What we know:
Strand content: 15-25%
CATH architecture of the largest domain: 3-Layer(aba) Sandwich
Radius of gyration: 29 Å
Amino acid sequence: MLTVIILSLTGFSMEQTNSYPIKKVNGIEYYVYTVQSGDGLYAISRKFGIAPEEISKVNPEIQKGLKSGQKILIPIQKNIQENEDASQRLKNELSLLQEKSFEENQKNLHQQADNSTSTTTLFIQHKVEKNQTLFGISKKYNVSEEEIIQYNPQSKNILREGDVLFIPYKTQTTKNETEIKGDLVEVITPSGKKELNEKQLPSKDKPQSIKHLVKPNETLFSISRTYNVTIDDILKLNPDAFPVLKIGTELTIPTSILKKDSIPSTNLNNNEMDSALQDIENPEIATAISTENNIKIAFLLPFNLDTPSQQNANGRFRDFYAGSLLAIKKAKENNYSLEIFTFDTEKSDEKLKEILAKPEMKSVDLIVGPAYSNQISLISDFAKENKINVLIPFSSKVYEIGINPYLFQFNPNDTQIEIDFLVDKIIQKTYRNANIVFVNLPGISILDEGNLFMERLKNRLLKERHKFNEFNFSSSNKNQSIPEVLKRNQKNLLFFNTDNSSLITPFLKEFYVYIDEFDMTLYQEYGWENQYIERFDRIYVSPFKPEIDASALEEYQKTFHQFFEWEVESERPRYDLLGYDLLNCFIPILKNYENNLTKKLKEITFDEGIQSDFHFKKQSEFSGYINDKLYMGERKAK
């Protein structure tokens, strides 16, 4: 019954739709499609490149099935070009996330080097040339292939022209080598102080700064990468560039710390810069490159970079990823050592299998994902075989949770958890004096999740000897009237036997006739959005706090806008906050319990979340963990 995060996500490709007639309903345009023999809702949704849920929403009659010859309305996808632009923006934004991760990587590497006393690990940045092999590169730098793979795990699978590798160059700290091929990342002197590479020393004849004119879509991240300087270096000379970087602004770029070959040609555009970045499907090490036992986290999310029509879904997962990175940044500030791998799973089982086959996946400590229920079984089998923890942040349908101890499910779909929570509120707390009314609509399947939920709730109340009333909407029930089941001077709490909001609307109208006589509150699903439903006071149950602490949110917002230059797409729940809270919960646990998490912990409690606190609990010895921390929220009638 508790379905909190409803994602209208599809990976479908839209066919030509110009041949279908168009009909305008309430000012909105729809295609009129005639159902063909053998058509299913899934097939039709693929044909038009739209989620099945969107089609069902405007055609509630198809809940009973599709019939050949039936005419249905298909929402018209708005402006494909806008979608493509949004997809390109997403690619740029994800690239910026990776750029920021790269910069954090470098800072962490420098910090580790500062703490070194006996041995210094130098890293050379090597750009892979055409036809080069791992063997050839290892011979060129006199290191083993294994050492290269250690710091560049993606190189074990494939090398591509243009890939940038970190090549370890180890030497005793009694002497600094000067004949090093490639771009040296850092040199550490015997005293532990940083020393500039010879190629980085400013020339007496060279100006100490150059000018850069900000172009559309450029950010401080991308500009800092272009010139191989840090954002702090830029802001020291251009304090007005933060928090807003305006197109046409002339920036002063410090050249005293530039490598000679890092100054770009004046005609280098943003697209060329972006194309130099690795694809997101390649693992991106976002933290310290070291030989320590880092916490390794892999994000397996459907960014759908090549599917413009998925802009809304893309934005949500981008937000989730951004919030997660802020939690990772916070952890690193607290001296946690992490490696982050990010993959675009799209909506393809084959793509997911390809990712899981990568050797580095077997060494991660936590997988975050997937987003879709139908991909969970693949990851569940992989996790169980390799004893890897999996955090499932979105889906409420995790059928493997009862048999896989490595799964952690945030969004609960266990009806009993919700019923236990509700009964506590009804019998002992907030609604103990309310008149409970169960409303039975005609034609509802006994397998409807709302019907199953209501029947179990009724049985539980009977067991607790708590009274309730029932009202049946049916042609045979002519003697019962609505006022008979309602009580004056008492709150009346209404439960309907379906989780489909469109089906209850016509019946709600009959209750609304008495809205001035009786105090009525509707129990609703968290995700219901219906203009008529909003005429009633409503309550709902969800794993999200009804109210967020304003000061905590304000502090988080400042950090978010410091690093990311977009507004999150969803109001509540916010996907960035979900990622932030979940990673803040799991990173310390992974650190403290290492590989024994599922053996040592029967439950996990986290009470420092901005949007959600958590209580993950095992249901049995062999099961995974389900979050049973729920909240009751109220929404007033509009």
